[in-house]
């Protein structure tokens, strides 16, 4: 593995991973209105087949039939399940992974929307394990979170099996460069207050444009990204075991340790002291 790919692997961040099961008793529930999700979705009909329509362009609709599909983030879909028997069972998985703090990783690849039978089998097994994990005690425990992250990576690998990288457009490459400039500025100034005006000036774009660029690339607005990166650095400092919680709060610009602990628990699900203690 070359240096570039090693750096990308280290920078992977799982922003969303969730699995759920839905059982429908009424055949009237089969018909679906148009739906759009911000994350990538895998849908599996455990008791039948699906006819799915994807809105892939202006006025262009792609029609698919089968038991298991991948729906890219932001793509509108609707479909009808053709059940076998009187009860319908649908299984869903939601995933969002970013790389280099910038882009939605899966959107960089040409992933087939109709999954193969081999991918389908792997998905069913992964989905069952994820549902079992979800009902275990202490979902905020570090061991639980690490197992969940491992399953998210497994789903990502499943989807990328055989996928080709999309060619980058000139416009997206320019936006990437602007974002990378802002990301560097944020990391250099992570310990002080940053404003949207200041970040827009660094990117040489309007505040509204910067907001759209950040939402598309990271899923959060610019100042939301700043808060997330500040807390990620706090997590690194806690694991380094060199500073107290109060010292970390001061280094990263928090008013006091209480405000820092409250923000940390909101993002990671555990307090700084619990995170520092390791697996529970």
Question: Would you mind describing this structure in some detail?
Answer:
The chain is of the alpha+beta class. 46% of the residues lie in helices and 23% in strands. It has helices spanning 3-10, 117-134, 142-160, 170-188, 196-203, 207-218, 222-240, 245-251, 257-268, 272-277, and strands at residues 13-24, 40-45, 48-57, 60-66, 68-71, 77-83, 88-99, 103-104, 109-110, 164-165. β7 and β8 form a beta hairpin. α8 packs across α9. The radius of gyration is 21 Å and the shape is globular. The two termini are 33 Å apart.
Summarize the structure.
The chain has 280 residues and is α+β, with helices and mostly antiparallel strands. Helix content is 46%, strand content 23%. Strands 1, 2, 5, 7 and 8 form a 5-stranded antiparallel beta sheet that branches. Strands 4-3-6 form a 3-stranded antiparallel beta sheet, with no helix packed on it.
């Amino acid at each position: 593995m070359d240096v570039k790919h090693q750096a990308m692997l280290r920078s992977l961040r799982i922003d969303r991973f969730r699995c759920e099961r839905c059982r429908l008793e009424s055949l009237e529930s089969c018909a679906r209105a148009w739906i759009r999700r911000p994350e990538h979705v895998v849908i599996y009909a455990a008791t039948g087949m699906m006819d799915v329509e994807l809105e892939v362009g202006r006025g262009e609709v792609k029609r698919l039939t089968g038991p298991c599909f991948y729906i890219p983030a932001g793509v509108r879909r609707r479909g009808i399940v053709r059940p076998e028997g009187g009860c319908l069972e649908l299984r869903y998985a939601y995933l969002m992974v970013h790389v280099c703090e910038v882009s939605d990783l899966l959107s960089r690849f040409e992933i087939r929307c109709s999954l193969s039978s081999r991918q389908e089998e792997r998905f069913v097994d992964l989905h069952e394990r994820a549902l079992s994990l979800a009902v275990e005690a202490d979902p905020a425990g570090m061991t639980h979170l690490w197992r969940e992250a491992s399953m998210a990576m497994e789903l990502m690998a499943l989807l990328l099996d055989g996928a080709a990288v999309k060619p980058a457009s000139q416009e997206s490459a320019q936006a990437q460069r602007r974002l990378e400039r802002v990301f560097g500025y944020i990391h250099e100034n992570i310990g002080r207050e940053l404003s949207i005006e200041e970040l827009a000036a660094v990117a040489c774009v309007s505040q509204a444009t910067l907001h759209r660029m950040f939402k598309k690339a990271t899923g959060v607005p610019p100042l939301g990204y700043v808060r997330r990166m500040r807390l990620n650095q706090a997590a690194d400092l806690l694991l380094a075991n060199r500073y107290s919680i109060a010292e970390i709060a001061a280094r990263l610009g928090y008013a006091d340790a209480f405000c820092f602990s409250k923000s940390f628990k909101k993002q990671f699900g555990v307090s700084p002291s619990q995170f520092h203690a390791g697996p529970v």
